[in-house]
Amino acid sequence: MVNHYPLLFTPVFKKMIWGSESWDITCRRDEMGIIKNGHAAGITFADYIAKDPIGTLGTRIAANGDFPLLVKIIDARDTLSVQVHPDDGYGEESGKSEMWYIITPPTGGELIIGLKPGITAQILRDAYENNSVEECLDRLRVKAGDIINIPAGLVHALTPGAKLAEVQQNSDTTYRIYDYNRLSPDGKPRQLHVGDALAVTDFTGKIPKTTVPGLDIKKDNCIYTYAIANKHFAIIKYELSGKIQETSNPAAFSIFTCVEGEVEIMGVQLQAEQSVFIPAALGTYTIKPSKTCTLLKAYTPIIKTDFIKPLMDYGYSHKEITSKCAIEIDSLQNPPYNTPA
User: Fold this and answer.
1) Residue 88 exposure: Cα atoms within 13 Å on the Cβ side
2) CA separation, residue 144 to residues 109, 263, 292 (Å)
3) CA atoms of 268 and 285, how far apart (whole Å)
């Protein structure tokens, strides 16, 4: 029997041409998390999971095999490539839907989110050919604390000065359609993936290109903002003014990322821009902020019961929930993790 506790990891740090990434929670062959606290310190995340898959991941998640999420802190010193990610079923790896929480907004105040209205695949291909892709891109003004949903198919790029927390599917598949004619360290143009990018981009305009306001539930010493729910992850923001108690879900693990302040979780100190893994079998634990603190909770939900029901019980209507939260309605009918084990 594994003695479970909140897990901290040594981040996998990546120096990029545009800035840096800290992969805080990762379970990938070439980017494997190493536990850095408690009796399991020095053990790889994969080996820890293998000792007790159900107790670590939860009954629903363990039944599906691979670890489903990846959590990063991204620091953009320059503009990232204009890119898009595929959905599941395209390519060899799983799809890549993600979300962003803005810790520091970009210097210019705007991110590249989506395409301008009326842009078709042919227009975008022509823009690639004549080096005018930037004219096709829409922009979104953001501020610290904003939450942005980036589902598969949405063209996007970070801009200089932005720092954010990112939760995504456990995939590293990215298709670049434009990269400002930058060169790789070897002096050659960076690889683009125009054909794949055009194949997976959503040109219908149905994906919202806005920040996600979410809906608040106020309880005890915390404001819980329910923001995003899809078939891969759900996101709730915790704004803590005092200590609270939580109980882990035996069906599914959760991850907390501290985006402001400091907090103690069951004796584990979590600083700003750090993440902690909460095993499914942990049980009841206390979250105690130093003063005030903001956390992001990421988990794999049963959307109807774990996300929608608490909001409806609090008094929100279905219309309010679907208009204020980013809920992937298709997930209710086509879930990989959305049914009880």
Assistant:
1) 11
2) 10, 20, 16
3) 11
What sign does the dihedral 265-303-201-148 (CA atoms) show?
negative
**CB 5 within 8 Å of CB 47:** no
Model's pTM, two decimal places? 0.95
Whole-number Å distance between alpha carbons of 200 and 86 = 5
Q: Is residue 207 domain-resident?
A: no
Cα angle 303, 306, 307; round to 5: 65
Cα–Cα distance between 174 and 192 in angstroms, integer?
A: 10
Range of the domain at 307: 215-332
CA distances in angstroms from 49 to 2, 53, 231, listed in the order given: 10, 5, 22
Q: Are 215 and 225 in contact (CB under 8 A)?
A: yes
Pick from 28, 30, 31: nearest CA to 49: 28
Structurally, the chain folds into a number of domains equal to: 2
Domain identity same for 163 and 259: no
Based on the fold, state whether residues 149 and 36 are members of the same structural domain: yes
Nearest to 195 by CA among 250, 124, 297: 124
Last residue of a domain, one of 167, 200, 233: 200
Question: Which residue do the tokens 């206390």 mark?
Answer: 286
Decide: 229 and 326 in contact? Cβ < 8 Å: yes
Digit-by-digit pLDDT tens for the chain (341 residues) are 789 999 999 999 999 999 999 999 999 999 999 999 999 999 999 999 999 999 999 999 999 888 999 999 999 999 999 999 999 988 778 899 999 999 999 999 999 999 999 999 999 999 999 999 999 999 999 999 999 999 999 999 999 999 999 999 999 999 999 999 998 888 888 999 999 999 999 999 999 999 999 999 999 999 999 999 999 999 999 999 999 999 999 999 999 999 999 999 999 999 999 999 999 999 999 999 998 899 999 999 999 999 999 999 999 999 999 999 999 876 554 455 455 55
